[in-house]
Design brief:
Layout (H helix, E strand, L loop, with lengths): L1 H18 L4 E7 L23 H5 L3 H9 L1 E3 L2 E2 L4 H10 L3 H4 L32 H7 L3 E6 L20 E3 L40 H18 L4 E7 L23 H26 L6 E7 L28 H4 L3 E5 L7 H5 L6 E3 L3 E2 L3 H9 L15 H4 L10 E6 L8 E6 L2 E6 L9 E6 L15 H17 L22
Parallel strand pairs: 1-6, 1-7, 2-9, 3-10, 4-5, 4-6
Antiparallel strand pairs: 2-8, 7-8, 11-12, 12-13, 13-14
Helix pairs in contact: 3-8, 7-8
Length: about 500
């Protein structure tokens, strides 16, 4: 019966592909997956060739490797340092400083933290925002959200992805982590963290279906429905993996036996491999129904790694990069990014319009803000008139070329408390500034300055050695914050702390 159903879908898909005007899109987003949480190397040497590091030999992600063989990976792709800001940037094409969801969203209470800006956008994405799925739906796409949403708190418009342009929403709500990964626990509805129970997957409750698999089954079913209806689809596949809790995926834990790694680190690695299996299962399904040639797959993480390896700001979880999720260093904001056609075919009209060179590495910067304009361009959709976008269309870069018109700049504004607290980072070319507002001593902000070309792992702070460069970077950062209408941390009296240069005197 299953074989006959697949044959029927393949025939339907063949008829659909003949008349299809727009490509399908799968956006495969992994929670808390940093650049080094994979067997696929993203870091490069001076010639732009992939370079392996020990963590690449610890993890097993064969389907990420498969994607990279079929398409292009970015060695330098930036997200925000925590989840909700990145997700809002993907949905809006705007930087966190502009959309003002600058911290992760707590479901129940405003988590601005003690000196955070009082007016920060805790409510998340509004139903009035011209989100990516809204724009694609207007162009005829069936828009599907499966898995983690985390676009707004309980009671907000963003709590329900259906308010933001998705025709279908499965297992998404205000929560930022699952109550459990186990079907036996009902994903938190039966046991586990019931306050973070995953909704809408009741048919798997009490079964041995791991959460990553349940979401995959649901996503593939929705793909089939879209194809059967003769519509192109946009699938926002938001895995809860690999966010804590680091529960053991028994299918893969036997691959991780290093006695030097903690049980949590081994469980994290198994979560990674289970997520990678989902990626492969979805790509296989697209081939089975005859839609792989028409489907662009984009894979990325939403912030730096949260791997339970070592300290927060050192060289452990993301080694050789410094820091991890929530930090100001490269390990906190660099994420994996891969794009490919699910089945390369140079004769396909969509692939002719966006030819992605197989097995290539793009060393020019990309950011989460770029996804919105890139996918609109792919679908032939114009951005809303008068709407400000901070992202750049990646089409040229996806073809393996350098985009000479894009600015080599990235601003990451985090006016809250976390592993790194009350800071803004600003990258301009080879240079990176970290500016700490220091609310308890606001007249004494602290800066760090790195040359990432010479010092990619942020070892040598040049703030006192190159004061002139530091001054230029602070001025440029301050100007960009103003241009994006950023909100700032506050002092004990509630006064906003804008960047100052008193420390340079």
């Amino acid at each position: 019966m299953k074989r006959n159903a697949c044959l029927f879908l393949s025939l339907c898909a063949g008829q659909f592909a003949f008349a299809q005007e727009r490509p399908n899109i799968v956006l495969f987003l992994v929670d808390d997956m940093g650049l080094m949480d994979t067997s696929l190397p993203f870091l490069t040497d001076g010639d732009g060739n992939a370079r392996r590091y020990p963590l690449n030999d610890w993890y097993r992600t064969p389907n990420m490797e498969r994607m990279a063989r079929q398409g292009i990976r970015f060695s330098t792709f930036y997200a925000q340092s925590v989840s909700s800001p990145s997700r809002a940037s993907i949905m809006t094409g705007q930087n966190a400083a502009r959309h003002r969801t600058t911290n992760w969203i707590n479901s129940e209470d405003n988590n601005r933290t003690p000196f955070g800006p009082p007016e920060w956008n805790w409510q998340g994405i509004s139903s009035q925002t011209p989100t990516l799925p809204k724009m694609l739906r207007k162009a005829g796409y069936r828009t599907i959200q499966v898995g983690k949403a985390h676009f707004g708190p309980i009671g907000s418009e963003g709590e329900n992805p259906g308010n933001l342009g998705f025709d279908v929403s499965i297992a998404g709500s205000s929560i930022g982590q699952p109550g459990s990964y186990y079907g036996e626990a009902g994903y938190g509805n039966i046991s586990g963290n019931k306050a973070r129970a995953v909704p809408g997957l009741e048919k798997y409750h009490g079964t041995a279906t791991f959460l990553s698999d349940a979401l995959t089954f649901e996503a593939n079913e929705q793909i089939d429905k879209a194809v059967g209806a003769g519509k192109p689809f946009f699938l926002y596949m938001g895995h809860y993996a690999v966010h804590a809790p680091f529960e053991v995926d028994k299918r893969f834990i036997g691959n991780y036996t290093d006695p030097g790694k903690s049980p949590a680190a081994r469980a994290f690695a198994a979560l990674i491999e289970g997520m990678d299996k989902s990626l492969g299962d979805m790509m296989d399904h697209l081939e089975e129904i005859g839609e792989a040639e028409n489907t662009l797959v984009i894979f990325l993480g939403d912030n730096g790694s949260d791997a339970p390896l070592g300290d927060e700001k050192g060289y452990t979880s993301s080694a050789p990069l410094r820091g991890k999720k929530g930090s100001e260093y490269e390990g906190g904001v660099r994420v994996p990014f891969i794009a490919c056609w699910a089945k390369p075919d140079g004769r396909n009209r969509f692939q002719k319009e966006l030819p992605i060179p197989a097995g290539s590495i793009q060393t020019q910067m990309g950011t989460v803000m770029d996804i919105y304009p890139t996918l609109l361009a792919l679908a032939g959709v114009k951005a809303p008139e008068g709407y400000v976008l901070d992202g750049t269309d990646l089409s040229v870069q996806l073809e393996g070329k350098k985009n000479g018109s894009r600015q080599e700049k990235f601003l990451m504004h985090f006016p809250h408390e976390h592993r790194g607290s009350y800071f803004t980072t600003y990258r301009d070319g080879d240079w990176k500034l970290i500016y700490y507002y220091n609310p308890l001593m606001p007249d004494r902000p602290v800066c760090e300055l790195y040359n990432l070309k010479k010092d990619p792992f942020e070892v040598h702070n040049l703030a006192t050695a190159d004061v002139e460069r530091l001054a230029e970077m602070v001025d440029a950062m301050a100007a960009e914050l103003e241009a994006e209408q950023a909100l700032y941390p506050v002092d004990k009296e509630g006064n906003p702390l804008k960047p100052i240069r008193l420390h340079l005197k």
